[in-house]
Amino acid sequence: MNEAPAVPPDLATDSELRIMPEKLGTTDSVVVDDSQSKENEAPTDNEKAPKKLWLTLSLIRHGESQNNENPCEWFGTDDQLTKTGGQEAFTLGQAWANVPIDALYSSPLKRAHHTAIGLISSSTPPAQIILNNKLVEQAHGEYYERYCNNGALDAAYRERVGLCLFGKQDRGHRPREGGESLHDVAERAVVELMKALENHGVELKEGPGAEALSAMKETCKEGTLVEGIPHVVFVSHNSFLSELWEAMLSWNKEEHVWTRCHYGNAAW
User: Fold this and answer.
1) What is the pTM for the complete model shown?
2) In this structure, are residues 112 and 77 in contact, taking their beta carbons and an 8 Å threshold?
3) Residues annotated as binding site?
4) Residues of the binding site for substrate
5) Domain map of the chain by residue range?
6) pLDDT digits (tens, 9 = 90+) for 239-257
């Protein structure tokens, strides 16, 4: 199981952001309707005041997919879970059977959506899955897809990552014809994080004590979640989740914080 490191205590010093990331998907699903977003409305006086919002956020990557199993082949951008991936999702659901989930958001791509279904397969009652197309994997552009379709996987890789300097990828590199840079993905991820905080975060007179926070770092199971703080889950993809994690570590810092963060299949 791939575990993400703990968030540094100064993460939210200036932004008034308060997050408690957890370690890291009914088969009913709904689709997010962004047409009702209030982001273009003028804020009221109360909305202008800074808020200290608390939220427990769990980040889960999809189970093994066809492209994961056979990296030398290409199954398209919306590949299915393999048999192993389906079992990983079901096993995850068994482990989370008694973990309360207040909101469950999933990428609509099959490998993530089916992992989310597996996640709630043993829960009673199951959480409703909210499909959100802003949680999809990094877009690699049409050139990348053409290379993959033609079996030119080395060229596809170069198109995707661009130039690397001292082992680090150019965060501004945007693959041709519709691709996203790492910076683009990070910005998209932060927007979804802020939406989750606004929609589900709660204000507390006092935050949870050190003992409760320490327990949450060990495992996500019944009894370790802090009572009164909503638990939100994102089921997504490695690049999206890694960029979200590094964006949180980089909060209020002048430079991006690089990590070795990598989510394994069905890891959280």
Assistant:
1) 0.79
2) no
3) 61-68, 111
4) 61-68, 111
5) 20-138+180-249, 140-179
6) 999 999 999 999 999 899 9
